[in-house]
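Suppose you are handed a protein chain with no further information: no name, no annotation, nothing but its sequence. What can you learn? This example shows the usual starting point.
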Amino acid sequence: MLTECDEVEDQNCAGLDEKAEPLNPYELVGAYKIRCEFEKLEPLYSVLAQLQDINLRESYARRPFFKLKGTQLNESHVEVLEEIFKHVQFEYLNLENTNLSDESVIALCEMMEFYESCTELCLARNVRIHERGWKAVARLVRKTPCLKWLDLRCVQLNDTDVQSLSHAVRSQAMSCRAEMNKFWKSQMANQRLRLKDCTSSDSAMDVASNQEATNEAQTPCPTSESAPYVSQLPYEGLRGIHLGGIGLRDMALSRLINCIRLSSICDLRLNNNRLGPTDAVFLIPLLRYGASLRYLDLGRNRLEDDGCKVIANALASTAFAVSSANQQAPIGLSRLDLSENQLTDASMIFLGRAIPCCARLTCLQLSGNPKLGCSGLHNLQAGLIRCRRLKRLGLADCGIQSVGAVALAEVLVDKPRRLSLINLSDNWIDAAGLLALARCLSCIDRSVRLLGLRRNPARMKSSAVNGNDRLLNSVARLATT
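A reasonable first move is to predict its three-dimensional structure. Written in structure tokens, the prediction is:
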């Protein structure tokens, strides 16, 4: 328990810290070394190398990153990091594979909550963190509205840990939304007071001047007047979360999706979680009602055709308007990753109907589905033609042959078209397909990059190697100009 003398001393120290001059790199390194010497630790080279580039006398702004990936940290190392966090804030803090324990994470989260040390946090591949540590992380999410990105790849999360994290995400979103509403209400109240003061000060003017002043007061404020308020805006909360490779399935996934749907998260990565067709049903509320969702990564799962059908039907029947006359840009999903999900040509019928409904879709990843084939690309062709904003298409190792290449060429020549990058690695495209692509690229008036044509099994096993090489070189030359 603190005594009165201790409280006075803490207040004096706080006052000295506020008046102290910002540190240069040498002073910052010296402070870190002194703390290490006090804790009887050897200073970490990775920390020293990064501190030498930080000069707080130039700017107090957040530094872009602080990377400790692969550095083995114990509890004492984490305690010493407080000497850095009390002086410097960062955008991205990378603690991937740093052997953190529950005690280390608890101490780290307390520091980051107090100093608001980062806006993006990576704790991936720290398998020694268990229930107590994840409770501390959940508290950090709930209490730190400046945290925008959380990377928890390949960690050990049980159902209880996922539930704590889900509630923290929802709680943070609700508090950030309340702060945002409070901010805009105060701004509107201040604006009304200013208009009232202007009206009362102009009461002595003549009728013509008063009428002119009233008209000016009723006109909407120009955009430039809102610039001073941008820096005062409250934090929006968590914008992205990476939960790849944690075995997230069944009811734990359902609880998480229900909380994410009510948050401001726009980037959700659930790759390599062995999600099956039944797990795709839990994604329906997010896909239908999550207007803020922009990027969904479902790669390296086991959704199969049934799961893809569920996802496609949800995307085709969203409960929000993806575009309207009052919106400057459409809303909804912009990137969808369905690579390595054991998809066949049957699921492409439903996906071809869904992607035109995603008015914002710019990237579609279908690589690693070898049973998709030419018929799958043919089923998807009509949807690709109607999806005008699509820029990147991943079709590597999809069993595409010459017929599929011809269908793809028909998509490319259709105008207007933004498609500019296509991955065709590890497909069996022979001379006829290469010729169709070459003629297509020579007819269009924009730059299109076709990746992976040299990684073509048909070319490697063809007897007419020289002819294929000439066609391949022609396509490559057209694709890079």
